């Protein structure tokens, strides 16, 4: 219907209108009508929107305001004069009993007050009760029940006629195929509602599509409307649709029956439907007699939006009384007795300008999309992670593409899809670097992984990220060691590695611009305090691949001293709860590395706690059972023989010399060759006297 060149031209025109404030003119009206027809076609017929809703709404509002100011430009073929362009040729068309309209939109408290004022004027003298319910973000349907049976289901279509989808709707388990309307005196009725796909189902659907190499669906709404219009009901059944019914639009009574009490107000009519077995919004609905109550409820509900299992894009406020609704009537586009309060937009389109590659703590190289800044839901988005090469390939994203960006609640923004129809041929493939963009090392991609990695441990990008991770709140919690300070200290070579944190030359820091005495002493105190952090935080802070906070806690419980892990095998690690082969391999690899052992020893030398102070191990009767000790040098707080006795009392065996059998070497002042030999061996845990005393104390306390 719209050839590729036309699509691109119309889209660019729309963007330029959105980015300027054009003067009213008849030619602009013509352009807007074409843009909206095109958008409607992509949205309703193709289920593949090219604009963000907020953009569409702005274009639509602009057209409406121009037609209002210049009635001579208003033609009856204008999209403002009907609901939508929603009919495909594949399905039979049926006429609705009552037109199925859209809703007028409001975006803030003022809009809502204006609408309430119009309601009050329309039914002057009477008080109004407002009913508020969720605005389900799905596809609208009309259901007709005759003699208690579902006889016909249709899409909204163009509002006057819809597509007949009875067999598809019968696949939706929550819609009753029959209901006892006759007991209420009703012979025939038409119910309106929304078909939705729950968020989890939707996510599953897109995972499935990705595995089949298909493009992801943009959102649950388009997925729902596309599914309803599939030609094979068996396929529909697989998509697990849900429904909510929110309006009785028409009914006729059995001979002799009077209008039942439940059909005087919107709220009561839905309660009746609920009792008859229909899914309705009754549980979420609230009644208000003043618009301020409505406004407060709307603001509150928006914050809870993400707690629902399905998507809503706002709330709908309806005049509760059916007689009042009747008196207010409707326009060609929407009823006057209802209005939508739309939540802040979560999607926007933008242009992908470039892709940068960022190197993380573990050397993983992440593509990051740089887009023209767009405002989504109150925040400006200009940088978006593309995760990895596979995601880029799956979504077929190119530099220069127009992309649909989503930012929902606390979720980090992501690119839903590219819009390939809008390409003009200048787009370029995203090329993945073969070498680390920071240190130049050749990148590697392990077979079973989706990411490329720089395996150069000395890579600057990784070093900075490792230090940041070590200092982070959930690790060693060194306040003040954030991104800017760490990057700055790194540049100045004040810190090049994690152990350097404990060797910072503070006089040099104090001389730096922007550092006051107070900030230096705070920072220094934070670094000093981190020495006492419990072992699980240290383990997490080391940034071992695949080791998160929980795994770190499980690990910390298993040893007396961090360095006990030097002798552990993969098999031993696997025996710990929640640790699988992948994590075990990573752990064994980490602790076997000479570089890592050196770093750990440097931390221990700097006085960082290596001891498990909450140990189940230490709580056993002989906390040192099975462990071998050797003391060397001069101890300052106890005699060597006392120290040996204390260790033995806890089950330790004292060895005569340094060998591979030795677990702990406790080092006093002026230690000599034993210390050298132990260091060379690399398997011996070297303890200071203080550390040894701490070990004794924790085992005595338990
Ligand atoms: N992105 C695009 O290119 C594009 C194109 C066309 C339309 N749109 C979007 O669609 C909107 C217009 O579509 P629309 O006509 O479906 O209007 P709408 O989505 O703004 O609101 C009307 C619809 O809300 C639904 N609804 C959900 N819960 C309801 C409830 N409790 N009570 C009553 N109705 C309820 C009904 O299906 C009703 O038809 C636009 O405002 C725009 O956001 C976007
Ligand atoms: Zn690198």
UniProtKB/TrEMBL annotation:
Pfam families: BRCT (PF00533), DNA_ligase_aden (PF01653), DNA_ligase_ZBD (PF03119), HHH_2 (PF12826), OB_DNA_ligase (PF03120). It comes from the Bacteria. It catalyses: NAD(+) + (deoxyribonucleotide)n-3'-hydroxyl + 5'-phospho-(deoxyribonucleotide)m = (deoxyribonucleotide)n+m + AMP + beta-nicotinamide D-nucleotide. InterPro entries: BRCT_dom (IPR001357), BRCT_dom_sf (IPR036420), DisA/LigA_HHH (IPR041663), DNA_ligase (IPR001679), DNAligase_adenylation (IPR013839), DNAligase_N (IPR013840), NA-bd_OB-fold (IPR012340), NAD_DNA_ligase_OB (IPR004150). SUPFAM superfamilies: BRCT domain, DNA ligase/mRNA capping enzyme, catalytic domain, Nucleic acid-binding proteins, RuvA domain 2-like. Its cofactor is Mg(2+); Mn(2+). It is an enzyme of class 6 (ligase). Its EC number is 6.5.1.2. Keywords: DNA damage, DNA repair, DNA replication, Ligase, Magnesium, Manganese, Metal-binding, NAD, Zinc. Residues 619-693 form the BRCT domain. Coiled coil: none annotated. NAD(+) binds at residues 53-57, 102-103, 133, 156, 194, 318, 342. The active site is at residue 135. Zn(2+) binds at residues 436, 439, 459. PROSITE patterns: BRCT (PS50172). GO terms for molecular function: ligase activity. DNA ligase that catalyzes the formation of phosphodiester linkages between 5'-phosphoryl and 3'-hydroxyl groups in double-stranded DNA using NAD as a coenzyme and as the energy source for the reaction. It is essential for DNA replication and repair of damaged DNA. Belongs to the NAD-dependent DNA ligase family. LigA subfamily. HAMAP family: DNA_ligase_A. This is DNA ligase.
